[in-house]
TrEMBL record:
This is bis(5'-nucleosyl)-tetraphosphatase (symmetrical). The keyword Nucleotide-binding applies. Residues 18-132 form the HD domain. It comes from the Bacteria.
Amino acid sequence: MDRYEALSIVEPHLKKSRFEHTKRVVDTAIELADFYGEDTKKAELAAVFHDYCKYRDIKEMEQWIRTEDLPKNLLSFHQELWHAPVGALLAERELGIDDKDILGAIRWHTTGKAGMTKLEKIIFLADYIEPGRDFPGVDRVRDQAKINLNLACFLASKNTIEFLMSKNQPVYPDTFYAYNDLLIQVKENLNGGKN
């Protein structure tokens, strides 16, 4: 499936602003994949479909979580998190995407997790830093994205956790696991050493 076919499939499922966001994530993901030596075609498809279920009916997503092999603890957290794992499930079932790398990148693009693959990190980061994003800390993450993928992902997860805590919102456990895992990977870098 090429980029234009994929975008034509996803477009009817998204609001116009979200579709524009998706196109920017695609461009950012391809750029990051090229820079970090990852498969640009996989990055492209994962980016196109990362928000495939963003506007699915909440009850439908809840039903998928309850009946399928998805973490049931998702139901205790904000519905904003649901579209990623449900999106990976439905990208496989409805669209026939069977590449586990692409599906993993879709599934983990909001929360992250410990032990993310390079492709998962690229989609997680591309969604966070695409040029339409404007919030405190994003420019520092963008700068690091051009230097150190792990450090950029660490900063993104750290910013997300700090933001949620400042709003007295719960933090999904996999986001903490991602933070801890990435911290271990970049600790020397944070302490002034080199990776």
